[in-house]
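Input structure tokens:
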């Protein structure tokens, strides 16, 4: 038999993590700016997030004090404190709304481009074993410019103590999963908590993420040139091996070489990060043509891709003004994201 008790978290204090492994984007908000002006400025930043105001009466609130060249999530948390609001993630983490705060400040930790927030603590009493477990649900989100292709399902906990100083035991980290948005959830299971404990005083650890700092855009502007055409960008090479008409399709063959140290992927994982390797044709009027089909395969740090476009008979992309643009992840890295959470309430 199991008894369940869940506490949805919206209280406590942010903590300072260790040195981040993916650098955050520094942003600024003008002194004495209104919340509406701050949201507009942050939306225009390279972060790639839309910042919205969740309540019209907050729009005229003055913000900006101390928000100059600070990391994106730190800036948003400072603005949320000034306006007594909270951060609500929408659209897969690509939209951040400053919504009215229903309680006290939520627990959070910022680590570089990542932000970690505990959302719920569920206590379970296993009567047949006489064991009490507590499951902590963590929301993890990151700047949308960052592409995360693989992440731990549970962090490795390095320190967990309750408010009485009692050391807690965390279950070992498990598998990994593959987010497609700019947020995901992690699970932590603790044993050692009792009814005498009111808070988890410290929950510290780290999780691994396989990520790219962003996407690279590589244009090829002369499709009638002599092939191959090679470009070096962001520490990697992108080569257009050929572009020609094959049957009823215009076919582009590309080869991409990532730097040494490219993370290792199992064969079933390759398509998880190759999803962001795309090509498009652009005509002289700026009309964009997506490929009708493609073959994209990776072998270690090398990618071979073929894209096929079916165009109108009169279209000739070898003429001046046409271009082909390859979008692909910047060099990938296996990073560790440390965090420290303080004063997590217990049910």
């Amino acid at each position: 038999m199991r008894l369940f008790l869940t506490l949805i978290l919206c209280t406590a204090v942010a903590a300072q993590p260790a040195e981040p492994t993916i650098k955050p984007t520094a942003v600024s908000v003008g002194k004495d700016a209104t919340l509406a002006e701050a949201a507009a400025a942050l939306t225009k930043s390279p972060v790639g997030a839309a910042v919205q105001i969740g309540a019209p009466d907050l729009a005229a609130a003055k913000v900006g004090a101390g928000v100059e060249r600070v990391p994106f999530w730190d800036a948003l948390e400072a603005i949320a404190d000034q306006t007594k609001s909270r951060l609500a993630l929408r659209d897969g983490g690509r939209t951040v709304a400053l919504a009215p705060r229903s309680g006290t400040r939520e627990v959070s930790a910022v680590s570089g481009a990542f932000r970690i927030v505990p959302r719920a603590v569920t206590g379970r009493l296993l009567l047949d074993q006489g064991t009490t477990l507590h499951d902590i649900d963590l929301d993890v989100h990151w700047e949308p410019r960052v592409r995360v292709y693989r992440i731990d399902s549970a962090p490795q906990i390095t320190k967990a103590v309750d408010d009485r100083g009692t050391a807690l035991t965390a279950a070992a980290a498990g598998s990994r999963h593959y987010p497609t948005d700019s947020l995901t959830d992690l699970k932590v299971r603790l044993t050692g908590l009792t009814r005498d404990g009111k808070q988890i005083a410290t929950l510290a650890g780290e999780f691994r993420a396989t990520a790219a700092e962003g996407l690279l855009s590589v244009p090829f502007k002369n499709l009638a040139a002599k092939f191959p055409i090679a470009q070096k960008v962001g520490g990697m090479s992108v080569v257009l091996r050929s572009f020609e008409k094959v049957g009823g399709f215009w076919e582009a063959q590309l080869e991409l070489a990532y730097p040494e140290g490219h993370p290792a992927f199992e064969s079933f994982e390759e398509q998880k990060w190759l999803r962001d390797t795309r090509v498009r044709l652009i005509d002289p009027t700026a009309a964009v043509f997506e490929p009708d089909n493609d073959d994209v395969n990776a072998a270690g740090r090398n990618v071979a891709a073929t894209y096929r476009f079916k165009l109108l008979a009169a279209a000739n992309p070898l003429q001046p003004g046409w271009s082909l643009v390859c979008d692909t992840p910047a060099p990938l890295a296996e990073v560790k994201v440390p965090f420290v959470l303080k004063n997590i309430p217990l049910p």
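Residues 215-329 form a domain with the Immunoglobulin-like fold (CATH 2.60.40). Helices lie at 35-43, 72-82, 270-274.
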